[in-house]
# Entry
Amino acid sequence: MKVEMKGMQKLKGIGEVLSRRLIEAGHDSFAKVAAAGEEGLRKIPGINPRQVKSIVAQAGELAEEAEKGRAKKVGELKQKAVFLKGEVEEIAHSVRNRFQEAVSGKAGKKLGKELVKVMASLEKLEGMLERRVKKAGKGLAKAEKRLEGLADSGLKEIGTGLKKVRKSLEKVLAK
Amino acid sequence: MQVDGSTQLWVAARVLLYERGDDFFMRWDKALKTSDPEEIHDLRVASRRLREGLTLFAPCYPAGNIARLVKQIKLVTRLLGEIRNTDEAILFFTALADELDDACRGDLDGVTAAFRKNRKKELKRLKAGLRDIAPGSLRDQYRRVINAPNLFVNPLDGADLFMPLSRFAGDALDERLATALKLLPVAFREGEAEAQHLLRIAVKHLRYRMEILSFLIGVHYEELHETLKDYQDLLGRMHDLHVFAGIIRNACLPFEIEKVLLDAIAVKGGKFFADFSEMLVSTPFEKFAENVRNAL
# Structure
């Protein structure tokens, strides 16, 4: 609640007390304040009727900004997910070229499964980016770090590395 | 997940087969719930498209796994086939009865009534059959198989799973086009019902393959797909007439009625063949094949 209250105080005319009252009335985001309109805000005890119009306008602008920022972030994350899928493809290709003999049997099957799992996790994450922007951002950054240089590593390191990548992605996917 | 021509084959195969599988199982649930003829038809088409998808991407997976899946899905197609054929027969003979004089109507109504009576039994059998196959376990098996590509198999022993999808798709469509083109000269002759039937099947496989890879074909896809669909529809109608003629022959109708009905079917068959011949001139299949190759 404190975080939301602080956010609301970005609106001129809204202090600590009014921000709490707004949130308690269910207007816990700029978009909701804008949607409530002047009539809705006049019902909040203690609000200055002369400032209501300006508060609604400010909330509208801030909501629009936040939406734009979010959309931009989602776009960036989508690009990152595509990039990471390319990295996974590159790792698989590199394994095939460098360890042809070693991966022709069971070890190859195991590694293949891991590669598919990582790819599947990235695909799932791509589908839920818009709902979990912050968590996905963290997960993708971690996965990117763990994938770095993996294409040139040894077979064992690649297997372990991919497992770690998958786990960091699965953390985002977990409810 | 976005797939394009540059996506590696092992990644694209999995994503595209997931799409096909989702469509098939979703339609399965729907058909079981409603038993609506259109839903049943859609499920049957989805099962065929899924089989074509599995055949298309078979080189990416252990052969036995794909063969087992295809076999199971074929069971579903067959189960659905009987009731679909009955629906088609009811529609055709009802329309034919309206076209012919009253002397034939009574006998044709008898044929249609027998199909209607059978439909109820078939629907019951279909529902039980679909439940017996257990969509849940088939779905699990399907996912297990498509999540385990033969990733590191030696390219000399199978497909190179790291090639871009566009290259694989070009060869895959070429293969189906070649089959159809080979059948064309014989199918062009009026009495060659068997060749026309084989061409119909080849065109159908090609159509499903094109649909799976549609996003690679680009702006001309709709137009090319429409042409192929027209060919398939016409060849399908020609084939249906042979089936309906067989039904009449086996219906033990009075000789003179049977003759009238078979003549009426033959007239329709002649008209369809004339349309088919005209289509081969107005939109030559060879030209169509060339356009598909150029569009990729």
The CA atoms of residues 214 and 222 of chain B lie 9 Å apart. The longest helix of chain B spans residues 63-99. Chain B has a mean pLDDT of 90.
